[in-house]
Amino acid sequence: MNHTILGYSLYLSISIALTIWVARTLHKNGKVFLVDAFHGREDMADSVNHLLVVGFYLINLGFITMALRSGVPPVTVEAVFVYVSTKVGVAMLVLGGMHFFNLFNFDKMRRKAKRSEAAAANEVPPAIPHL
Questions:
Q1: Would you place residue 114 in the very low, low, confident or very high pLDDT band (cuts 50, 70, 90)?
Q2: Domain ranges of the chain
Q3: CA dist 109 to 11, 70, 104, 106, Å?
Q4: How much is the pTM?
Q5: Which string of b and e fits 85-110 if b means at least 16 CB within 10 Å?
């Protein structure tokens, strides 16, 4: 097998597997934050959670496939290891960045929901005039 094809195959396999694992983890654990942010509305939380995962896949898989062309293709076994580790490392950094971006947005949504709840609890109902 050609070293370049081996490098590409390893890079794509590892990066796609990492993307799937991170997306499943975010989907599973992100639901708790979204349910809280949407005032217990699980239907809304599930819908948004699914849309976030789809966007996560599109961005990360798009990045992984576009990054395949960058760099010098490996021509030796040693170069395959360097190529794959560098490419997977960059993909992991992108996945980590996406993860923290999602966490930031979940927390922002949750805080906004909590502020809305607090404001609603502190609202004084209008006085009813006596007749």
A1: confident
A2: 3-111
A3: 35, 36, 9, 5
A4: 0.72
A5: eebbebbeebbeebbeebeeebeebb
